């Protein structure tokens, strides 16, 4: 089964964070791509980021971002 596009968008959103520095956050602005805004909202709903528009990674988000980065490195 292939990855659904919304999950790919969430993985791409996780890659915007710097998992080695928990003080680096992101903010999705009101004029951002709607798919990115939805992805970050979904990450918030899953408890991976601190704000509906980004914020910082939670502990769970930190682990997910590290794994997303690892997977990208392996696949390249």
TrEMBL record:
InterPro entries: CHP02647. It comes from the Bacteria. This is TIGR02647 family protein. It comes from uncultured Thiotrichaceae bacterium.
């Amino acid at each position: 089964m292939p990855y659904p596009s919304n999950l790919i968008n969430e993985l791409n959103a996780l890659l915007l964070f710097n998992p080695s520095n928990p003080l680096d956050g992101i903010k999705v602005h009101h004029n951002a791509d709607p798919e990115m805004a939805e992805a970050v909202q979904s990450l918030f709903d899953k408890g991976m980021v601190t704000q509906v528009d980004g914020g910082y990674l939670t502990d769970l988000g930190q682990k997910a971002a590290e794994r997303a980065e690892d997977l990208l490195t392996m696949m390249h």
